[in-house]
Design goal:
The chain is of the alpha+beta class. The chain starts with a helix and ends in a 7-residue tail after the last helix. The longest helix is centred in the N-terminal third of the chain and has 50 residues, at 2-51. 40% of the residues lie in helices and 9% in strands. The protein is built from nine helices and eight strands. A four-stranded antiparallel beta sheet has the order 5-6-8-7. The chain has a two-stranded parallel sheet with strand order 1-2. It has two domains: 2-51; 62-85 and 101-294, Muramoyl-pentapeptide Carboxypeptidase, domain 2, CATH 3.30.1380.10.
């Protein structure tokens, strides 16, 4: 009897041992699978976080939203606000709902007169929200404006001569963007920030008050298959502008390799009118436009 009980216990222990080994053999692959999944997601989120702000995070093409006409500045500040898909209104006491179109925690120098052709418009300065040029004229259709676009009269007269000289040289230019109001730029930046993140948007779009387009003297040129891309610099249009625009008073605001100075990526399509004499001096100096204007008298509040 005792022998039979010992035999039964031995068989029971043996079966338990076999079941334990079987469970272990099934558990090991399962643990390995769970570890692999955790490792994959950990790596994914790590690299996703560290890619924020890289060149790849920037839009391949900087899209220009619908422009406005001067008559609408007093009304809505936008021509087609529904096309811009503005950000939803958020509670001001929510720390995550900061208005990205406004500079944060930076004391800006306020420009007293935006009509001054050499006004220094940068990330450290701001135009007043109430400032708008008073002598805007509509850009003629023969220049192939993307939409109804406006420019200050003096800048426009020189733009006409620039466009004709380019045409005489066999170069076809179009006008993608010109004057933008403070409110228009505010919505534009907010939408870019919503789409690409604030850090990325801040490299290729100006906040309200810090856009040269508010001056009414700045033009974004096009006419190629790579408009609003860095590759525009290598087109016939881009090369012609780089060689000749200064002769008509226009300076490229954001040249290649100067982002640490200007705060913006290379924009070979973006030119600002500063006057014939000043543009010639800027070209001769070989400086970025920001560096050049910093040497000129500036007027702040």
């Amino acid at each position: 009897m005792k022998n039979r009980q010992r035999t039964n216990r031995s068989l029971s222990d043996h079966n338990s041992s076999r079941r334990g080994k079987k469970h272990k053999s099934l558990l090991q692959p399962l643990l390995l699978l769970l570890f692999s999944v955790a490792l994959f997601y950990g790596a994914y989120y790590f690299f996703s976080d560290h890619l924020d702000g890289d060149e790849d995070a920037l839009p391949e093409v900087i899209e220009e939203a619908p422009p406005e006409s001067p008559e609408q500045v007093e009304e809505t500040g936008l021509e087609d606000p529904e096309d811009l898909e503005p950000a939803p209104v958020q509670e001001q006491d929510d720390p995550d709902s900061a208005d990205l179109s406004e500079p944060v925690a930076v004391e800006l120098q306020v420009i007293t007169d935006g009509d001054y052709l050499l006004a220094l418009v940068t990330k450290e300065t701001t135009l007043k929200s109430s400032y708008a040029p008073t002598n805007l004229v509509r850009i003629s259709d023969y220049m192939f404006p993307a939409r109804e676009l406006w420019l200050r009269e003096e800048a426009y007269r020189q733009l006409e001569q620039l466009w004709q000289a380019a045409t005489d040289d066999g170069i076809t230019l179009t006008i993608i963007s010109a004057y933008r109001s403070y409110d228009y730029q505010k919505t534009l930046f907010q939408n870019y920030a919503n789409s690409y993140g604030e850090e990325a948007a801040n490299r290729f779009s100006a906040r309200a008050g810090q856009s040269e387009h508010q001056l009414g003297t700045t033009v974004d040129f096009g006419g190629t298959a790579v408009d609003l891309k860095a590759a525009f610099a290598d087109t016939e249009q881009g090369r012609w502008l780089a060689d000749n625009a200064y002769q008509f008073g226009f300076a490229m605001s954001y040249p290649e390799g100067k982002e640490k100075i200007t705060g913006y990526i290379f924009e070979p399509w973006h030119y600002r009118y500063i006057g014939l004499e000043a543009a010639a001096a800027w070209h001769e100096a070989g400086l970025s436009l920001k560096e050049f204007l910093q040497q000129k008298p500036q007027f702040f509040e």
